[in-house]
Design goal:
98 residues, 36% helix
Length: 98
């Protein structure tokens, strides 16, 4: 089930109830430019992890990315299929992964 782009705010993530199922997610900046494409076994945990303060050494790009994320979207699908979609989307968006 594909969702429209959602504002990336804590209250929206809690209200939206992102499912804890496998799939892929995309993060966009204010201009709608694709910043990041990722795959997760549990979408809710992965998307919410962008709101948490992480150890910079473990996740050096997350603080930079977190500041730029304005909206996000996700799609629930089997993990194998999600990985194929992630690979295809990353080819189309080389600016991906800061």
């Amino acid at each position: 089930m594909k969702k429209a782009r959602l504002r990336f705010k804590r209250k929206n993530l809690l209200k939206e109830k992102v499912p804890n199922k496998p799939g892929y997610y995309k993060m966009y900046d204010k201009k709608g430019k694709l910043l990041y494409v990722g795959v997760a076994k549990k979408l809710r945990h992965r998307v919410q992890s962008y709101l948490q303060k992480d150890n910079f050494k473990e996740h050096p790009t997350k603080p930079k990315l977190r500041k730029k994320i304005h909206t996000y979207e996700y799609k629930v699908m089997p993990l194998k299929k999600a990985r194929k979609n992630e690979h295809r989307l990353k080819k189309k968006a080389p600016h991906n992964h800061l």
